[in-house]
């Protein structure tokens, strides 16, 4: 059967590379905030609170960015489905870069009092608005340019870029975190944020040269009255079940934020481990993820999205216990081994698959809106997971509660994914349509 989307030939490699580079730059900005929140923001923006409360407040500002993401999803999803994927990708990199540079320019609590954390939260909200459209836009762009039998592989480049952004953010913070305490808290923490000025320029140049997807262009050319001026209306009228499934499945993002933010804070502030080795765990795990994500995606193009996704979720539920326990006893061999296995290998099975699996639930006319709204509401819980974990952790032995909390979210994800339809053999032009209910359409060779 001929896939209608092949009527206009896409450019999958160009779209995938642009998605990778853009996501790496964008999520460098997003994750340097998380690292700073775990290591220094409690001391420079919340010094009036006791250490435990200051840490909780600092981690809460990380989560605040996720509150803005559902709002940004509605706005940027609408823009992307009406005016094109390319426009969203230009807007997001500009907004993220500017707001991140301004974080590095903020005065501290000692300089202007309570206004400092208020400004911090305001800029974090702008970061959240940007991130809301970033992955959905990049994923839609990659999926709609990709050959039907390699959609998971090409869309996985967006998440590989996200991992690269985490590597870059952590690597930049390694020499900064090694500074003497006085220099770190006075000017050192600002340097990674100021480097985002280059992110804005590079991101704008890359994304301004992208071609719009053939699927979207065909919607514009032939959609007529069927192409809704307000895609949110048909999205919630006709595809509410898919939106709900994406919302629930997206809580798997809590594994990432627990690993990158809470575990770092727990290891350094509660257990008393050195900052630098724990930062290196994140760097090495993300390096491994760069290779694991496309491999898992290739497997999903062969055997389906659901078995790979579910296997990764169950593995994370188990391995989070081992990782947090290894932190609690301060065994660096176990910390590195389990951390890299969990986040670099096993979590990559979910991270590499969701861009295709979620995007394939929706037709082109509402795809960006559906992915953006569904993921960002689900990611909001992931964003606040470090704060929830800090609240329920209760000291050095509280890691068990945090591991149970994370495992529960993984199981919720498994139920949501298992209830969805398998889409890896559905032609691109039929995704999200009643025809997609038919099993095993032979487009995979």
Describe this structure in words.
The termini are close together. The protein has one domain (10-214, 229-424, 433-437): Growth Hormone, Chain: A (Up-down Bundle), CATH 1.20.1250.20. The chain is an all-alpha fold and 445 residues long. The radius of gyration is 21 Å and the shape is globular. The chain is 77% helix and 0% strand.
The main β sheet shows up as: none
State the CATH class.
Mainly Alpha
CATH superfamily: MFS general substrate transporter like domains
Question: What is the arithmetic mean of pLDDT?
Answer: 83
Instruction: Write down the overall geometry.
Output: globular
Note the topology:
Layout: H1 12-39, H2 41-44, H3 51-83, H4 85-104, H5 109-112, H6 115-145, H7 151-177, H8 181-186, H9 191-194, H10 196-208, H11 214-222, H12 232-238, H13 240-249, H14 253-271, H15 275-303, H16 305-329, H17 332-351, H18 354-359, H19 367-393, H20 399-418
